[in-house]
Task: structure prediction
Amino acid sequence: MFTGIVQAIGKVREPEVLGDGVRLTIWAPTLGLDSVAIGDSIAVNGACMTVVNKTDKDEFVIEVSAESLSKTTGLDTFGEVNLEKAMRVGDRLDGHIVSGHVDGVGQVESFDQIAESVRLVIRAPRVLSKYLAYKGSITVNGVSLTINSVEDTALDTLVSINLIPHTVEVTTLKHLKPQSYVNLEVDTIARYVERMMSLQNKEDDDLFI
Result:
């Protein structure tokens, strides 16, 4: 489990083809890899990945399967990525509960400077619409964020988010621009509520059969 509070920005070396997937070596000198062992989990741009090797004190290696590549964006190329080590029992939950399982890929509609902040608008897949709510939580490329507004369209859902200067400065969100793709994870609690409500509605319908 994670919190969506980015701990470091890493840099991906040139990906190495691994069957249908890729092997990535990530340089992360500020993440604190001394406390990371092979087999540990690290969220890379919001996707939970397993450390399979440590080349030195500043680098770790992950292997991304074809399935993960098909469900995410930005894990098959070099560049900067948001990193967070798995949460430990007893850690402070400064963001929200994040599983590291990407629910869908969204596309940036706009990224506009508004006074000192940035207004980020993302087109989220329609299938995620029922989990998105005003003042609810969403994870974008591994960053825990609060939704400012939601607008459903015929094909997708427009999600508006306000980014404070600190968030822009310490994450890779600073590099976003219109048409950029981002990894999205909905609020875990919203997912369970939707499941419970759907079962309750089914039970209610069965009473009238």
About this structure: The radius of gyration is 18 Å. The longest strand covers residues 104-114.
